[in-house]
Specification:
By secondary structure, the chain is of the alpha/beta class. It has a single domain, classed as Transcription Regulator spoIIAA (2-Layer Sandwich), CATH 3.30.750. The chain contains three helices and five strands; from the N terminus they run ββαβαβαβ. It has a five-stranded mixed beta sheet with strand order 1-2-3-4-5, with helices on one face. The longest helix has 16 residues. It is globular, with a radius of gyration of 12 Å.
């Protein structure tokens, strides 16, 4: 399967990545390559996941890695456009307790 990632810079320190497709063991490295260089001090990254059809534990690992990196540098990771299926996965893994999730896209 494929994943597509589009970057939109809103302000100097706020970037939105629009992710579409499936984030799994095969495609998660592409998300990591795009996301991790953006994890800098005082940076806010919004991940629009409204077009993500599927995410497995490898994709969750990328989210956790970005969250940890941003938090260590006084940054913030925000997830938007979460489908009910993905929301359930985030709840099961308790990531809803640590990662900011916004309803709007």
């Amino acid at each position: 399967m494929n994943v597509s990632i589009q970057e939109r810079t809103q302000k100097a320190n706020v970037t939105t990545l629009v992710v579409s497709g499936e984030v799994d063991a095969y495609t998660a490295p592409q998300l990591r390559e795009k996301l991790m260089p953006l994890c800098k001090a005082d940076r806010e990254i919004h991940l629009d996941l409204s077009q993500v059809d599927y995410m497995d534990s490898t994709g969750l690992g990328v989210l956790i890695g970005a969250y940890k990196s941003l938090r260590a540098q006084n940054g913030r990771l925000v997830l938007t456009g979460i489908s009910p299926r993905l929301n359930r996965l985030l709840q099961i893994t308790n990531l809803t307790e640590i990662i900011d999730i916004e309803d709007g896209v």
